[in-house]
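Reader question, answered in our methods column.
A reader sent in the components of a multi-part assembly and asked whether the whole thing could be modeled at once rather than chain by chain. We filled in our standard form and ran it. Here is what they sent:
COMPLEX SIZE: two components
ENTRIES:
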Amino acid sequence: MESLGVLLLHPMDAYLEQELARRCRLLRFCWDAPPDRRDAFLRAHAGSVRAVVTGGVAGAGAALIDALPRLEIVACFSVGFDRVDLARCRERGVRVTNTPGVLTDDVADLAVGLAIAVLRRIPQADGYVRAGQWKAKGDFTLTTRFSGKRVGIIGLGRIGLAIARRVEAFGCPVSYYQRTKRDYPNYTFFPTVVELAATSDVLVVACSLNEQSRRIVSREVIDALGPGGVLVNIGRGGHVDEPELVAALAEGRLGGAGLDVFEDEPEVPEALVALDNVVLAPHMGSGTRETRRAMADVVLGNLEAHVSGKPLLTPVV
Amino acid sequence: MPPPAPADDAGDRPLVLLSQTPLPHFAAALEGRYRLVLAADADAATAAEARVLLVAGLNKVPAELLDRLPALELVTAVPVGVDHVDLAACRRRGIAVTNAGPAFAADSADYAVGLVVAVLRRVAAADAYVRRGRWATDGDYPLTTKVSGKRVGIVGLGRIGSMVARRLAAFGCAVSYNSRSPKPSAPYKFFPSVLDLAADSDVVVLSCALTEETRRIVNREVMEALGKDGVLVNVGRGGLVDEPELVRCLREGVIGGAGLDVYENEPDVPPELFAMDNVVLSDHRAVFTPESFRGVLDLVAGNIDAFFAGRPLISPVTL
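And here is the structure of the entire assembly that came back:
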């Protein structure tokens, strides 16, 4: 793999970067530079870049792909690939890989952790105690029980199933929506997200982002979830009508939310920051040392397979 | 909060003494069923007559209080823990004791799991990070550690402990436990000592009762065995942990983090903890849900009614 010219689009993981530098011909993109310098960089190195390593939020758009005539593979350091122009890759015969499986547990753990944190107001209690208010005011807050809440999951893929298995241990009845109904004896299928939301106390977004699922959590869905309902999003900010979500939370039309993703990361709507009924996380669903290491190994494994002409480990295209 | 007004007409409502003023949620519901009198306010006749004492909170119920009630046969407690009641005195006098354990178990277990995830994945710290605008200025939050696959040692495999076990097993954690005696039906590894449990665990969850044997059961030795990456979660009683030593161990990095719902001297919380990112604190609220409170009312009333009707108690505590 020593002759493989790899363009690392932005810093994403120290171990990954170290291995790419050691095993390939690594080029680090000037991600933060102004557009003309970025274009100049791409022009200068176009001849040598055969692989791009990118993250879930950065992706790889048509402009980048077009600027790299020798590009053979885009390896995503993420399971999401909604920001990779797959059509352009297909046209050009460029392979695309992601990192499914290795991050399933982490994302599911955080989804359930966020659900409990929102319903039981864990960060708020922590803040209350740290501010000395327990001693000063000593009022007690009742927060609603998590066990037994009806959990609705949008997308029963690897992550959705892992979430279902966890919440079942809390006695939560599980329902789901996805494009095709499957045969799950313990999970109730709903043919629309609105119906799913109407019968759920906690609605979890766990599907991939594509044209059909963009803003799948619409005003109608938020209204159906209602003042007693909580939304947990560990998918993509693009799954949710964010301005509508913020308004509903601020006005009490939606009970609460646990959000790991936002439409324009790292920007988080100001109105959310003032709310007590939300838990905010900086897109850290897969952010553990163990999982990022495993994700890096998948990226490296895919690049190795590509250069040796072997089947890719986790191809998307 | 003023005590409930004494009934004009004792009528059919049985007399129940209160160890302290109950929370408003309980007072209203109980007043309709029983003639409630604060033990401290009871006149001689009332004290002599009282067969039931409702322990309505965590104020101590010492032998001196019990001794003023010669007709006492039942102490029914609202909290799960009854370590603040002089159980030896109850045992001596043949007074039955009930707690509200079953009503609280799920919420306590849920909160324990919530704390485990919150500490390991820094949910509270990361929420603060986002609210302070640091995601935009300082970049991604530092990497944390996986919950799935962690070895979890539970101290006390009663109602709460077994619910914690089932939940964390579903997260892919390897669960083991310590309790007074092994539970043959439990599919988890048993350790005869908390020290051995801690040595074999990444996370220790305390969900046992506070007794003479378990007081400060988590000491420096146990925390050293748990280790620098180890996490302690306490939803039991503050008295289970040597608190000054806990603070030292956190400060020195002897253990890796803690999730605490209870403290030795509530509501005092060691202020050194306030600056720590690897700690999640809460104000003894693990069981404060409307669902628990409804369940507790049902259980307290159920036990009192069973007593007066001569039926078996629902949730007796073994003395």
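What stands out: The longest strand of chain B covers residues 151-155. Chain B has a mean pLDDT of 94.
Send us your own complexes using the same form.
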